[in-house]
Amino acid sequence: MFKRVVLAASALALTLAACTQAGGNKVEVFSWWTAGGEADGLAAMIEIFNDQYPDYEFENAAVAGGAGTNARAVLATRLSQNDPPSSWQGHAGQELIGTYVAAEKIQPLDDLYASEGWLEVMPEGLIDLISQDGHIWSVPVNIHRANVMWYVPETLTAAGVDVPTTWDEFLAAAATLEAAGITPLAMGEQWTSMHLFETVMIGSLGADGWEALWDGSGDWASSDVTDALDTFAAVLGYTNDDASTLAWDKAADLVVSGDAAFTIMGDWAEGYFKSLELEPETGFAWAPAPGTDGIFDFLSDSFVLPVDAKNAEGATAWLKVAGSKAGQDAFNPIKGSIPARSDADRSLYDVYLQSAMDDWAADRVTGSLTHGVVANDAWKAKVDTALGLFLSDLDVAALQTALVDACASDGACA
Amino acid sequence: MGSLRSRWVPVAMLSPSILAVAIFVYAFIGWSARVSLSEWQGLNPDYTWAGLQNFIELFGDRRFQIDMRNTLVFTSFFVVGAVVIGLGLAILLDRHIRGEGIFRSLFLFPLAISLIVTGVAWRWMMNPAAGDRVTGLNLVLGAIGITPLEWHTSDPPWGMAFVALPAVWQMSGFTMALFLGGLRAIPEELKEAARVDGATELQIYRRVIIPLLRPVLLSALIILGHLSLKVFDLIVALSGKDIRLDVPAIYMWTTTFDANNYAQGAAIGIVLLVSVAVLVVPYLFWSLRREAEL
C-alpha cells in the first residue's frame, strides 16, 4: 500500500514537473529519433539551433520506438492533457493532417513559408501533398524514397538476368530466377507487403492514377485497379516463404547472401547495406522499382507548430532551423536521407544520395501510403487489414471490394 | 474507545486500496464502456451517443471474426496442452523419483521468463525458412528425416495452434505445480484402500486420484483460460502484427493507436472483458460458496 502511495505521489510530482518545464525559454522538441544516424543527425541540428538562438534552451524529448509507434501514443496522451511540446515530429502528409489538423492541434505555416522563401526551394509536388485546404501544415526536414529496388549485381550476372524496368519484365525475370533456385523477391513482415503494394500500384497505374485513388477522383473498382492487383498477387507468388517472420533488414540480408535477387524497400536500406561494408554500385546496387522510373515515391519527417504553443517564438525558431539549408545539410548526410530543399550542398552526400537528389529535382513526385503521405491513419489501417487478409487467401476480388469499402468508410470516397 | 479504534484501524488501512481499486479498475471499466457507446474517433473526445453501433460493426467485421476463431483455436490447444502435459509431469514427479526437486525447478523455470522473451526465442525456433536456410526446430526435424514444418505460418487456422506451443511450454510447469499440490493432498489411505480392494495402478488413477483432482483442474482451467483470452505480448513478439495470427487484444491496440478509433477500440476491450467475466465469475461464485460451506 505504502508503495502505491509513493508511486502515485511520484507520478503526480513528475506530471507537475513536466507542466512547469514547458514554459519560459525552453523549446521542447518531440521526436522518435533516439538511435543511430537519426539521433546523431538530430544532435547536429540542435547544435545549429543553439548557435543561432542562444537565448533559448533546447530540450530533446525523444521517445524510442521504430517509426514512432510508441512516441505517437505518448504524444496523444500529452495532447489530451493540453500539454503539447513546442514542436513534434510527424510523417508529412495525410497521416499528420488527418490526425492533428482534423483535431485542430496544429497551425498553418503559410506565413513562415513565405517569409523564409521555402516555396521557391521546395518542389511543388511536395507542397501539394503536405497541404490541406490551401494551407501548409508542417516543415519537412528530410526526404526518403520508397520505390527503390535493391540488388547485388553479381547475383544477377550469375543468373543471366537484367534489371527489370516493368512489372511484366520482372515476372519474366522472376521465373528464370526461381528456376535457378534463387528467391526472386525478398519481403519481410506485414508492413513491407504494404510497401510492395504501393510500388506495384504506382508502377501499374502511374503517379496520376495512384494519386487519383487517394484524392477521391479515381475509382477503386476500376479494371485498371483489378489488373494492378493481379500483378501484385503474381509478384507475391515470387516472395520468400518466411516473409512474415523477417524484419525488413533481415529480408535485405537474403539479397546480400545471394539467396534472393531483389528487395523493394525505402532508401534507408542504403545505410544498412553500407553498414555491412558493401560498396555502392558493386557490392549492392539500386534501380527504381519496376514501372516507376521517373517517379519519386517520397516520405518525409516534418515538424509542426501547435495551436496555443507555450513558446511559439522558440518553436518557430526551431522550425526555421529545420527548414534552413544549414539545418537540412547538417541532418541529412548523417541520417542517410536527402534534404527537402533543392539548393543543398551536394558534396556532403554519398553517391546514392546524390543520385536520389538528382531524381528528387527531376522526377514526378508522388506520396507513399505506407509512410503516411497519401492516406489518413484510419484509412491506412483499413487498407492494412485488407492486405493482411489478402496475404493469407490471395483473393483479388475480395481485396478490391475491401479497398472500395475502405475508401467509402474512412477515405476520400465518402 | 479501544473497540472503536480496533474497528476503524482496518478500515482506514484498507481504504486507500479500496479507493485505488474503485478508481483505477471499476471507474475505468465504466469509462471504457461509455467510450465504447460513443462516436469518438480522432484525438479529441467525442461522447456523442452511438448506442450499440460499434458492437454491431465489430461482430460484422471479417477481421474480428478471424480474431475470435483464432482465440478459440489458441485457447483449445493451449489449455488442453498445458493441462495434459502438466498432469503428466505431476504424476511422474509424484512417484518420488530421485532428484525430484531439480526436475520440479526445471519444469517451473519457463514460468519465470517474460512472454516477450519466449516469443522472440520461439520465433527463431519455429523459423519456417526452407532449403539452405533451414534453422531452429526444422533442423532437428530434418535430421530425423521429417519434412520441415511451416509452424505458425501454416495456413489458418492451424498456424494459431502452433502459437499455442510456446505458451504450453511456458505454462505447463505451472499446471504441474498445481496438480502436484493436489496429488500430495490426497491421503495415502485412499490409495491403500483401493489397492486392498484389488484395483490396478491405472484404475486407482482413473477412479480415485483424477476425480479427486477436479477442484485443481477447475482452477487450472480458469487461470489458463483467462490468460489465453487476453493473449497479446507472446503473439506480437512471435509474429508482429501479422493478421493471420491476429487476436482481439492486438486488434484493440491497432484500432485505438494506429487508426485513432477510440470508440471501436473500447468496444473490443469491453468484449474481451465480458468474455473473461463469463469464464471467471461463475468460478468465483462457486469458490465463495465452497468457502462458506467449509
Describe this structure in words.
The complex is a heterodimer of chains A (414) and B (294). Chain A has helices at residues 2-21, 36-52, 69-80, 94-101, 110-116, 118-121, 124-129, 153-159, 167-179, 190-215, 223-236, 248-257, 268-275, 312-323, 325-335, 351-362, 377-393, 396-410, and strands spanning 26-31, 57-62, 87-91, 131-132, 135-136, 139-140, 142-145, 148-151, 183-186, 260-264, 285-288, 295-299, 301-303, 338-339, 364-367. Chain A is of the alpha/beta class and 414 residues long. In chain A, strands 2-1-3-13-6 form a five-stranded mixed β-sheet, sandwiched between helices. A four-stranded mixed β-sheet of chain A has the order 14-7-12-15, sandwiched between helices. A four-stranded mixed β-sheet of chain A has the order 9-10-8-11. The longest helix of chain A has 26 residues, at 190-215. Residues 11-23 of chain A have low confidence and may be disordered. With 294 residues, chain B is an all-alpha fold. Chain B contains 13 helices and no strands. Chain B has helices at 2-36, 53-60, 62-93, 100-108, 115-125, 137-143, 158-184, 188-196, 201-212, 214-229, 233-239, 248-258, 262-293. The longest helix of chain B has 35 residues, at 2-36. Chain B is flat and about 70 Å long. The model of chain B has no long low-confidence stretch (mean pLDDT 89). At the A-B interface, helix 1, helix 3 and helix 17 of A face helix 1, helix 3 and helix 12 of B.
Give a brief description:
The complex is a heterodimer of chains A (414) and B (294). Chain A is of the alpha/beta class and 414 residues long.
Radius of gyration of chain B, in Å, reads 24 Å
Spatial gap, N to C terminus of chain B: 34 Å
How much of the sequence lies in strands of chain A comes to 5-15%
Estimate the mean pLDDT confidence of chain A. Answer: 89
Number of helix segments of chain B?
Answer: 13
The fraction of residues in strands of chain B falls at under 5%
